[in-house]
Known about the structure:
The structure is a single chain. α4 packs across α5. The protein is an alpha+beta fold and 345 residues long. The protein folds into four domains: 153 residues, Lysozyme-like (3-Layer(aba) Sandwich), CATH 3.40.80.10; 55 residues, no CATH class; 52 residues; 50 residues. The longest helix has 22 residues. The strands form four sheets. The protein has a six-stranded mixed beta sheet with strand order 1-4-3-5-2-6. Helices cover 19% and strands 24% of the residues. The chain is built from six helices and 20 strands. Pfam families: Amidase_2 (PF01510). This is N-acetylmuramoyl-L-alanine amidase. Belongs to the N-acetylmuramoyl-L-alanine amidase 2 family. Keywords: Cell wall biogenesis/degradation, Competence, Hydrolase, Sporulation.
Amino acid sequence: MSLVQSLLSTERYGIKCPYQMEPEGVCIHNTANDASAKNEIAYMKSNDNQVSFHIAVDDKEAIQAIPFNRNAWHAGDGGRGTGNRRYIAVEICYSKSVGERFVQAEQRAAREVAAILKGYGWGVERVKAHRDFSAKNCPHRTDMDKFKTMVQEELNKLNGASNPVNTSAGNLYRVRLSWSDAGSQKGAFSDLNNAKKCADDNAGYKVFDKNGQQVYPEQISNNIIGEGAKVRVVGNKYATGQDVPGWVKNETYTVQQVSGNKALLKEIVSWVYINDLALVSASAAPKVTIEVGSKVKVTGSNYATGQAIPGWVKNNTYTVMQLSDNKALLKEIMSWVYIKDLILM
């Protein structure tokens, strides 16, 4: 990151950045004028308006005015709003007349944002638009899907991964230690084979689709990890989102209960995603494999299409009509469900 620092005087903190902050992400803005980054920073620092931002970026430079451990008034979501109190604000200059200067400012902003993500161990999902926090059409010029793809490409470079073909950030295969550990992400790829190669080049890494389903290597099935199985924890997050301490990974645990894609470990009374477990030994009586004709119940929250599963669906028993990779078609409701979200009856 090549930030130029022109920091606000601490005497001005009470107006512009009164609160300590532990940032959670980056919020993108367009300035809606044609002033340079230097002029934007100078004006913000000199006036008495409760309007502020951390960084302004133009085609020549990126300038930081407020430290990342202080809040800024930029998101329009109030004194306790998540945007104002938890997000680093980045203003992209020259959005009024657009043109080549604005294009270059966006490109520079993507590099700066990627460097912030890298520094905090975040993924591109931590990048938000001003409009995500309040009813203002900002950024009014920047296409957020394209911008996130630009950021991801820059992040891939910083992480030493090859870049994917330019595509919407929502349709990429992500390479991580676990889906819950976004900070471990090595790259995001439109081509599954490129994602697999990245995972193979980084020990312990896996490939996940846009829904968070592990597609490579073949994930451990709920039918293998059942109650009584002995496992080790390989992921960095519990199912609650809390960090897994290092000492936890040195022990073997007993699966006390399985629910959907999570397992309850008896010795530490903690839920862990099955994708984040390594099988040491199977339970004495492993479950029978689900096959065509099996009678099953649904335990997951989403169909394979991503749509939410209504509560009443989970109260009935269904017949497996067809299998395709890690999905099953249920005859009675003609819907595809991930096999990991089914239990045999």
